[in-house]
């Protein structure tokens, strides 16, 4: 995509956010729109596919702090040009390549420092020979979601991931031309992507209208990608979920995002993991947690209880006189991560009160209550009640 096309788009409007939106707001808006317009959910819907590509492109710029800074600076300097872009030529009016004006070109003295860097990054710089190199643009990052169960999150898993996303066109190899043909160098700009024009004492350059700033012309566009060099395709990747992954954690697969432009590196694929809760176990960092119902006599008299783990079972000793709610720690039975860190199993003891008692159990409890009448289980509260009587 040429600089003129790139800067002429309103990426904030594409995602439906304001220009001062936070990174989280941008991400949330992208994920919502990408999900709604994903090709897998809109088979055969050309408009949805077009919208999916547009929001992916917008997110690729606005999610990158450096690209967003350049984009915002250009918007501030040129102003929103509506359909005609940001101050670029529309009908007969001539536009300027501000990258040439403010950039430090070879053979020219001075420049405008950081401003030249920003604009030069967006529009390219002219060299001594007068040619320009279209700036390579790294591919946009892509994000997708997977759902795994609790045990897979603890122990790790290898999953197939079916992904539909923009990728290098397999038919033309990314050059945009129909197989058997090749793009030709633009005769108007000589392959530079820019044409020069004079205005008074100044000489300016602007994106070539014939090749749209690309430097090449495709006479026979590829039927699959329409000359863009990028098409939406479905691919299957194998994703390794590391042991101990947290819910909502992202896993980065380098180079598996959208392809770059102009020979640049592709973006990355981020897999967001959603972990289903377990019916028995919980998690606190690297520790597994479990609540075990116990009887009053097990707490009062002490003993040994059997507790399940993800790998089997363990015996846990309960000291006499243990209070309900006490947490016992079983070393090394928690989550082991790839870095070698290991958690424990935290066992919370919770007294279970029977809903009904038979005559024998009721008589035994009444005898116990009578025998333990001298023991006040709440002395502080009893004392306070007496003070206020």
UniProtKB/TrEMBL annotation:
SUPFAM superfamilies: Chaperone J-domain (SSF46565), DnaJ/Hsp40 cysteine-rich domain (SSF57938), HSP40/DnaJ peptide-binding domain (SSF49493). One of its GO terms (biological process) is protein refolding. Zn(2+) 1 binds at residues 169, 172, 222, 225. InterPro entries: DnaJ, DnaJ_C, DnaJ_domain, HSP40/DnaJ_pept-bd, HSP_DnaJ_Cys-rich_dom, HSP_DnaJ_Cys-rich_dom_sf, J_dom_sf. Residues 369-389 are annotated as: Disordered. CXXCXGXG motif repeats lie at residues 169-176, 186-193, 208-215, 222-229. Residues 373-389 have a biased composition (Basic and acidic residues). It comes from the Bacteria. It is found in: Cytoplasm. Residues 156-234 form the CR-type domain. The keyword Nucleotide-binding does not apply. Binds 2 Zn(2+) ions per monomer. Keywords: Chaperone, Cytoplasm, DNA replication, Metal-binding, Repeat, Stress response, Zinc, Zinc-finger. PANTHER family: CHAPERONE PROTEIN DNAJ 1 (PTHR43096:SF54), DNAJ HOMOLOG 1, MITOCHONDRIAL-RELATED (PTHR43096). Homodimer. Belongs to the DnaJ family. The J domain is necessary and sufficient to stimulate DnaK ATPase activity. Zinc center 1 plays an important role in the autonomous, DnaK-independent chaperone activity of DnaJ. Zinc center 2 is essential for interaction with DnaK and for DnaJ activity. This is Chaperone protein DnaJ. It comes from Amycolatopsis albispora. The gene is dnaJ.
